[in-house]
Each structure stands twice: as structure tokens, then as C-alpha cells.
Specification:
Purple Acid Phosphatase, chain A, domain 2; 2 domains; 5-stranded mixed beta sheet; 22% strand; globular
Length: 403
């Protein structure tokens, strides 16, 4: 049996083993959810993490152009949509759910770029659709390599995608995709949902199956989910109130207010208070125990761009790329690139690629577009730049000015 058939068998068999009580069901696994991911001839594999598009139909035209230009700059092997992919909380018609998803999926489809996705807290807030409905839409695109995977109630799309070596002979890396849910309804702590114990059990069983299929060696992995893990506040440095750059967090479980900054050695920026669940069900501990996860990557907190290590696992936040009126952004909005090397898979490279990394000051059209929809700016500034944007846009259509 060749390795690709082994991968398919491992994925399908493990999913079928993951019934944890009567309330848990296993979603269908697409044939094309078997891994078609492989390191290139240069030994590299590049992932572009695009999170919190959070728009409706039609999608903001500057955001669409920005996404296209980012793809052309990065040339990713895989795009990971990080949740809040649509603004489900404001889309009222089912037909507009389809159209909103098509706004970005058609970009990937036309370019033959493979896509995987997780769901955020806003995706299925509309009465017009469920995650199952949206999953069927995603799976209708040939570029989509994710699958329904393991499901438990409203949690849909828990799956993993192994990446083969450049010669296709062995496992080198693995990507986890977890549905982190929306809002906490389990107790009076409110806040955001936790990853369910059934999902954690699924992860542990699947990780073990991959290890066994890999000759007893754990496959190094990165995990993607929308909402950040609660352990982020253990990873941050607690400081006194009034410390420059500190964010404030009132912990619901203890009713204590504490203040945090990035610890020494961390990268990126902490621009807003992280918003994880108020308690944990043990997901992070399970990752530590299993020993395969190098990093857990989230979106959700739109202006945070940090990388901070806790107990050997990197907790990473990617900023939003949204210009939507239903969202919020900052000057550091962008996407995140991961570059994995099959020779040293544990030593991956990651960085945020922002708006200024794509467009120079000479690009008057896109600079005016950014200033128009950047919610950091006052309304008069946005209106003034909006006039500029449409002026430049008018002439660019005819190829006379401002490419």
C-alpha cells in the first residue's frame, strides 16, 4: 500500500473511531480530504493564514485586491482561512451566504490555490445558514482540501492534513484544524466557547494514529483555530497597572483584574486584550502531552500580531485583513506567512505580511483605499481619502493614471 493510501486509511479509520458518547457524530470525509499536500522540489512548503475577512456580499473591493496582490507576492502552497471568514451576524439571506463565500473562494479557485478553513464565532451567527450548509459550499470548490471531519453538535470541520516529503515517500509535517466554537453556554462565566473534550479526545486519537503510521515517531504539527487558547495569559507577563503598553483583563472565574505585556523574547505586538475562553478543558495540556504541536495559531483578536512561547509551544496570533464595516482593524492589519522546510520541520519561519509590505507609497490608489477604510482614521480623514480613492479608481480603469 502506498503512502497516500495509508494516509487515507489513517484519516478515515481514526475518524470512525471517534464516537465519544451518543451526542457525538462523525461527519463525512471527502475523498479529496486525503492529503494532496507535498513539499516542493526546493524542500519548502508555504502556508498563508488569512483570518477575519468578516465581510458580507459584496466584499470590500480594496480587500479583494489586497488579497489577490498578497497571493501574487507570497505564492502559497496552501491558504488557511482562520475563521470569521464571513460576517454571518449580518447576512440575512441564504443566497448571500453563498455569494459572500464565493467572493474570496473564487479568487483561490481561479488560481488553483489549495484552501483549508476553520470556523469562527461569527460565521454561523446568521439564521440563514448553519456550518453544515457553509461546509457544503466550501466543498463544492475543487481547490478546497478540507473536509467535514469530526463533528460534535455545532462543532464542524475538525480534521488534519499531513504534508508529504518532496519525493512523496514519508510524512514530514501535519496541520490540525479545530472548530473553537462561538460563545460559552456551559456555565455562568460567559465569554467565548472552549474546545470540547470530545474534540480533544479526537485529536489525541488521531495524533496517535499518525504516530503509529509514521513508525512510532510523532509528526511535527501546527494547529489552527479561530479563538486563542486560555493559556495565553500564563504566557504573557503580568505587570502593575499603568505599565506602558499593558492590556487589562478581568478574569471572570476569580473576578480579578490583571495587566499584561509581552514577555521578553516574544515577537510582534500586543495591541488589545486577548479574548480566549474563561476556562479550559485541557486542550493545551493535551498538546503538551502528545508532543507533536509546535504552535497553535489563532485570529479573532484583530490587531494582535504576537508570537509567544509557553512550555515549548508557540502561541501565535494573526491580525485581521478586514476592511468590512462589521469588523475593526489597525495599521498592522495583514496576513501571516509560514514557511516549513522538510529538512528541519521544527524550525519553521513565520512573519506577518502587512499592507505596507504589499504597496509602496507610490501606489496612490491602494494607499487611498487603505486610508478610506482603515478604522483607525477619523471620519473626515476617511471621507477625504474616499474621494481620492474613487478619483484614482476612475482614471485607473482607463489605464491613464495610477496603476
Amino acid at each position: 500500500m502506498n503512502l497516500k493510501k495509508i494516509i487515507k486509511t489513517v484519516v478515515c479509520t481514526t475518524l470512525s473511531m471517534c464516537l465519544i458518547g451518543a451526542s457525538v457524530s462523525v461527519g463525512a470525509v471527502k475523498e479529496k480530504s486525503e492529503s494532496s499536500l507535498q513539499f516542493g522540489e526546493d524542500g519548502k512548503f508555504t502556508v498563508l493564514h488569512v483570518t477575519d475577512i468578516q465581510d458580507r456580499y459584496p466584499m470590500n473591493s480594496v480587500a479583494k485586491t489586497y488579497l489577490i496582490d498578497t497571493l501574487e507576492k507570497v505564492h502559497p502552497d496552501l491558504v488557511v482561512l482562520g475563521g470569521d471568514n464571513i460576517a454571518g451576524n449580518v447576512i440575512r439571506l441564504q443566497s448571500n451566504i453563498d455569494k459572500a463565500i464565493n467572493e474570496y473562494m473564487s479568487i483561490f479557485e481561479e488560481r488553483g490555490i489549495k484552501v483549508a478553513a476553520v470556523y469562527g464565532n461569527h460565521d454561523a451567527e446568521s439564521n440563514a445558514s448553519t456550518k453544515e450548509y457553509q461546509q457544503a459550499i466550501y466543498e463544492s470548490y475543487s481547490c478546497y482540501v478540507g473536509c467535514t471531519g469530526f463533528t460534535d453538535g455545532e462543532r464542524v470541520g475538525n480534521y488534519n492534513l499531513p504534508i508529504l516529503s518532496s519525493d512523496g515517500s514519508r510524512y514530514v509535517f501535519n496541520l490540525w484544524f479545530i472548530d473553537s466554537g462561538d460563545y460559552n453556554r456551559e456555565n455562568d462565566l460567559e465569554g467565548y466557547a472552549v474546545v470540547k473534550e470530545s474534540q480533544i479526545e479526537w485529536y489525541k486519537q488521531q495524533s496517535q494514529a499518525l504516530k503509529e503510521a509514521n513508525g512510532g515517531v510523532s509528526v511535527p504539527s501546527v494547529s489552527f483555530q479561530h479563538i486563542i487558547v486560555p493559556e495565553i495569559f500564563d504566557a504573557l507577563e503580568q505587570v502593575e497597572k499603568g505599565t506602558e503598553g499593558a492590556v487589562e483583563k478581568k478574569h471572570a472565574a476569580t473576578n480579578e483584574t490583571k495587566y499584561y505585556v509581552l514577555p521578553e523574547g516574544a515577537k510582534g505586538e500586543l495591541n488589545e486584550t486577548p479574548c480566549p475562553p474563561e476556562y479550559t478543558t485541557g486542550q493545551f495540556d493535551a498538546m503538551l502531552e502528545t508532543g507533536d504541536v509546535l504552535a497553535v495559531v489563532s485570529g479573532h483578536d484583530h490587531t494582535n500580531t504576537f508570537e509567544v512561547n509557553y512550555k515549548g509551544i508557540d502561541i501565535i496570533n494573526t491580525p485581521c485583513m478586514s476592511f468590512a464595516t462589521t469588523s475593526y482593524n489597525g495599521d498592522n492589519m495583514g496576513t501571516r506567512v509560514f514557511v516549513f522546510d522538510e529538512n528541519t520541520p521544527e524550525d519553521y519561519e513565520t512573519y506577518v505580511i502587512g499592507y505596507d509590505d504589499i504597496y509602496s507609497e507610490d501606489n496612490k490608489l491602494m494607499k487611498a483605499g487603505f486610508e478610506t477604510w482603515s478604522q483607525n482614521n477619523s471620519m473626515p480623514v476617511r471621507i477625504c481619502n474616499g474621494i481620492k480613492y474613487y478619483f484614482y479608481k476612475f482614471f485607473s480603469i482607463f489605464g491613464k493614471l495610477f496603476k
